């Protein structure tokens, strides 16, 4: 029976090319936007180069301090000394890395200024992340202990600073903010959409201007706790929270007294979304309002338009419905037939959308709009797209199907 419904749907498509074009255009355009959006969300939150271990990592990104009335609040990254004491000494993680947010710096080639984003890290940063070293190697604990002025640079900065691509950059000198560093390694860069790893130049945390010796609780550093296995994440979080709970309160910093302290270790997506939701009820309302509006515009309006198109398309088949009813076809059978037909048409639109999405993603990746962009249509994106196709086909087909199946035999035969 299902094969027969699909054959009927195909014949209907060929019977009215104009309706077919309008329907497939609306479906493919809508699903293309949704697939590109899904691919971008996958690009933001899933495990990709060089952050391939996100699924077994916990992120410590923010410290929140509040007074006793919880009316005053101070939040931001932590100091290196705080993380070194409360995170680096944890026993459960496989590795713990401490790194800074990226900072702005400048380098010069002759009179040309190169704007840079720089980052200070420990040696474990290169073990937690999976950077592709094109030349050289990362700096080690020994480099940090010695206070060596070394740096790892990206291939993009290498091209700008060392125009001769035939010569190795390893061992050469770079001058950044009037300080000379020896290039120890060259890596393929990370997209700006991955702020944990994004930078043009990476320094040991002992390099000048890192402020790693700052004794306050707050500073400019964050941390990643890498588990040996996903099953260890809860134990790691419990151990870290036990450490935080042992910090004596209240805390006095910069003439402010704080009686409440919160430092979370969370998966990447939860941490990212949590920081937005922690911005207060106004920001929450804006976020959820924007999401609702986007979903309505991308899914609701096209579905409503396709409902109208499908009603017009099905109305022309009223005599067919009347004859089938006259021969005893139940309402459920008619409804199921029209829903299957619409899902079949939607899947054709989805196939067109898949081709369009592949072209758009290729254009985005090669355009340079997002440096090192690597949007893909992987298995998760594909499966989500198929699910959206089915939902979209069901939503835009069920109302016309119910309306036409309830036509009386006399009214249907008159049409």
From TrEMBL:
Membrane topology, record value: Multi-pass membrane protein
UniProt subcellular location: Cell membrane
InterPro entries cross-referenced by the UniProt entry: ABC3_permease_C, MacB_PCD, Macrolide_Exporter_MacB
Top-level division of the source organism's lineage: Bacteria
Positions of the ABC3 transporter permease C-terminal domain: 293-408
UniProt entry keywords in alphabetical sequence: Cell membrane, Membrane, Transmembrane, Transmembrane helix
Residue spans crossing the bilayer: 21-41, 285-307, 343-364, 376-399
Chief localization: membrane
Cited Pfam families: FtsX, MacB_PCD
Positions of the MacB-like periplasmic core domain: 20-242
Protein name: ABC transporter permease
Biological source species: Spirosoma liriopis
Species lineage: Bacteria, Pseudomonadati, Bacteroidota, Cytophagia, Cytophagales
